TrEMBL record:
The organism of origin for this protein: Streptomyces narbonensis
Keyword Ribosomal protein: no
Domain Mycothiol-dependent maleylpyruvate isomerase metal-binding: 17-114
Protein name (record): Maleylpyruvate isomerase family mycothiol-dependent enzyme
Key words, A-Z: Isomerase
Gene3D superfamilies assigned to the protein according to its UniProt record, in alphabetical order: dinb family like domain
Cleavable signal peptide: none
Length: 223
């Protein structure tokens, strides 16, 4: 779980990506192709387009094609458009390669700047699960790896200090963000998936939670 330790675990992104690979790829391989045209929480993107973006981003890391602006919306849209005519199997193959090979490259980056990409891939897997109507979107078996990575990312993205009490995880507290002089820490009470939704900017329809001391907008890690 999250702690107050600022030390980076360089192999945490790799463990998250590989665990998610083993959980997600069997689902994707057995899902009928027509389901990939379903819309996701990402505005304008279908499940197929989200996965094309995920594979492209990870393989860019693997192949060290990280030119300036590489993960900005315009570049992401270009990568997705470039894969528009690819067979679905090719998109899934590229994604599986990225989930397998990107982690060690991310671990080698001492600045940790690519760690948030691994977390974003996990969030996008939740986007696809939700579009498919699968249980465990933004939660599931990878959550124990995603939460510590969210803690690190929330500090790097300079969100305000928040202590979350997760009702579905034994009310275990998680510490996120940075302490700010003169500002009390914010408080969250709800389930883990809703906490992820808030930080990732995903829809909060049909959720229940209490948030005091901060706004949802202040907590966003992907802007």
């Amino acid at each position: 779980m999250c702690t107050d330790d600022d030390g980076r675990d360089p192999w945490l992104p790799d463990r998250l990506l590989r665990t998610e690979r083993d959980l997600l790829m069997p689902l994707l391989r057995r899902t009928p192709e027509e389901a990939y045209e379903l819309r996701t929480a990402c505005p304008g993107w279908t499940a197929r387009q989200v996965l094309a973006h995920c594979g492209a981003a990870l393989v860019r890391i693997v192949e060290d094609r990280l030119e300036e602006g590489v993960f900005l919306p315009e570049a992401n849209a270009y990568d997705v458009a470039e894969r528009e005519d690819w067979p679905l199997a090719r998109i899934l193959d590229e994604l599986e390669r990225g989930l397998t090979e990107a982690g060690p490259v991310i671990a080698d980056r001492e600045d940790g700047r690519l760690d948030a990409v691994a977390l974003g891939e996990w969030v996008h897997a939740g986007d696809v699960r939700e579009a498919f109507g699968e249980p465990g979107a933004y939660c599931g078996e990878s959550l124990d790896l995603a939460l510590p990575l969210l803690s690190v990312t929330s500090r790097r993205r300079e969100t305000p200090r928040l202590v979350g009490v997760l009702a579905d995880r034994g009310d275990h507290p998680v510490a996120l963000g940075n302490a700010m002089e003169g500002r009390p820490e914010a408080r969250f009470h709800g389930d883990a998936a809703t906490l992820i939704r808030i930080y990732a900017g995903r829809p909060l329809v049909r959720t229940r939670y209490e948030l005091t001391g901060a706004t949802e907008q202040e907590l966003l890690i992907y802007r």
